[in-house]
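The passage that follows is intended for readers who have already worked through the single-chain material. We present the inputs for a multi-component assembly, then the predicted structure in tokenized form, and finally a short commentary. You are encouraged to pause after the input and sketch how you expect the pieces to fit together before reading on.
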Amino acid sequence: MKKYFLHLFIIVLIFTFSCRQGNHNIEKRFLELQKKIKTKENRILFINLDGCPSCPIIYQDFAKEFLDSGVVVLLSKNSKKANAFLNLAHPNVFYDRKNLSAKLRLANDLPNLSTSRRPIH
Amino acid sequence: MFKRNLVLIASFFQACSQQVVETDNVFMDNFVEEIRLVLDDSTSNEFIYSQYFIEGEEEYLVSLNPITNSVDKYSLADGSLSKRIKFHTEGPEGINSVMQGFTYSSSDSIFVYTKGSLRGSIIINEDGKFVKRLNPSIDKTAHFGLVNHVSTAGNPTRLFGNRLHFMQYPLFDVYNPSNINKNYPLSLEYDLVGDEVLYDSLITYPESYRDKIWPVYDLVFSREIISDSIYLISWPLLDSLIWVDKKNHKTKNILAKSNYFSAQQIPFNTPPNQEEENEMVLGQFRYGKILFDPYRKLYYRMVMHPLKETDNKTFIPNIEEQKFTIIVLDENFKFMKEVLFPSNTYSPFNIFIAKKGIMLMKNNYFDENVNEDELVLHIFNLEK
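Having made your guess, compare it with the prediction:
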């Protein structure tokens, strides 16, 4: 019985450790992106305009409203397409032409929202 | 010993560099001319939905512009925008959903399609006036009355007489092998007079595909519509083309094999994850688009070449990193040659036939030198 609980304890420990590690990594990558795009906003919406051809139409209104509460990162090789989606001069819009956020594994093909639990400085 | 190895290594390097030089020369040997389309601030150079059109002697590249909600006609003579045909995106005469392709059939019949459905697509004329909305009466017992219409450069929807000829994407679980069968009609026709959809039972999944699991990208074919009753089909995993004679209800296989490989058909044993799919389609040779050149009476078949590294890569956009060849066949499908084109240079999707030759777009996703204010077109004559 003791042996059984010991095994269970080790398994729980492994799972807990891996979860912490994962979250920590995401936090670290999120922080890295915040520094690169020079923002302190803790809510970032990623929209890959090249990976999702329907996104420019489906998510435009949502993205515009989101600008009041966070940053929108637009991934696209084409600045005209990105600018037609959201005004690239807006202070809460970051145009990610070099796919920085995808390389940091924060952005996917479909739009996704990342938040950080770190307090705003 | 060291010397002998050095010679061996040197000859390997020599062989590699020789190959590159030969490749470059061969493809540029066929170069005819460059055309530069001038793009305004509201036009992306992607030209995802585009089409070649000839009117009298004038040649055009026509494109669906999702930023301006218009069909744009560019003159291939001087690269200028000769006409912007705007359409509504709201109201009873507008296209009220996400757009997916278009067909410029004539100046009074320009079809703009909605994504994943025929219903709701519109016809406009060259003045931008609304002509008709497609509202098919479909047999509800067939596939729940749904038609997953799609029009791409590799499989464009075309109008012959009063009928639109088009393909549809599957509406089922593609990883269930029993769904890959001979019953699902991939090709359909829309009768504009009767507003009805007609199913074509001749074009289904090829026999060697059936009851197996394939990457979803291998389930998409390219079709060249030779006439209202003759189609030519290229499947990614078949060395042969399929000639479809609708009138006589016959099909035949025509060998159109690449010199670089023989199509391997190794299906998955279990449904693949995304990484496995991408690795298979990007890491191996695949046949692509089929084209008929009416000016020179030639057929062209594209072959996508594998990437050496496929880790963390996805089919789109990384297919644009691949080199590709174009197999040239004469009018009797006799192999003439296979021309290799470099990676990261041209779009593998939008390739058209113009009077002077085959037209490639120089707007590759991975080409960092592309100027967003123009679209460069290269024309090659592969007859030589």
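Commentary: Chain A has one domain: 2-115. The radius of gyration of chain A is 18 Å. How closely did your sketch match?
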